[in-house]
Amino acid sequence: MGVKGLTGYIARHAELYLTPYELHDCSLVIDGDNLACNLYKDASGPYSAFGGNYDDFYRTVVNFFTVLDECNIRPYVLMDGGYEPRKLRTVRARLRRKIQLIKRINPCGSYPIFPKMMNEVFVDAIRDCGVPIMRCLFEADDELAALARKLNCPVLSYDSDFYIYNVRYIPLITLTVKARTKLRKESASGRNLRKNEAKKLEKLVKGNRVIRGITISNQETSHRWVTYKYLDCCLYRVEKLITRSSLSKEKIPLFAALLGNDFISRKPFQNFFAYGLGKIGGSRKTNQHQRRIRRILEWLKHESLESALEKIMNHLPKAS
């Protein structure tokens, strides 16, 4: 779906919103369509306009999941399904843009061209790796978030929707797909029972009594070094946005709606942006949309959810 401009805003303030993270020994819920596009870009390089390269793409996908396995990461891949009726207008608009792009295509251009069978090859590679994969009925975003919460693990994607979901989110571009090795100190404790402790235990067993509350004092602790493999990445939590912007959780959906997405156009909010939100200041080094995001966050900080909704509704176009 995508929240317009939010990816750029977070990237511009990455030091405030993203935390370095070592990914290993955990489950990982993956946005399959997003991963497929990004891996194909890596596999085809700047020559995607020529199409094909399915063998290179297949190997790239297999290598990706091999690296995850090295770090003991258990992936679960979810793919998008059909389109909801309310999104068909957006889908048609995107298809028209693609047609216009193909008409004036530049083989050496930077805009990626995805081949027709890309998703099929992606799914085949995943199945050959033995990774669980599921296709959702419609867009997979809600299911990705629900599964991540159920498994208590991060979501891997590059979709600005996950900046407002209440899940741990790893932006795909922050992931370094190269396993690194690190040493970790672990405590290893344990010793044999002392003679008097052993006798006490023996009496309890002979008497067929329930053993409880046996404590061993003066426990000797030793340490050992173990190695583990991990992937470097950055982790985002919605609490960062809430804390940094002094927002409450219930205002997050309203914030996202004001920015616009595939389902909600910004056009109905034009009067509010012009007269209700106030002047959008800030440095000219950032574009207007980035300045608007900052202004919306500042405005919401001083409004309750009810007062914010009332002021927005007062500036919406009247139904004819």
From TrEMBL:
Stored InterPro entries: Asteroid, PIN-like_dom_sf
Organism domain of life: Eukaryota
Family per similarity comment: Belongs to the asteroid family.
Name the record gives this protein: Uncharacterized protein
Record organism: Glossina palpalis gambiensis
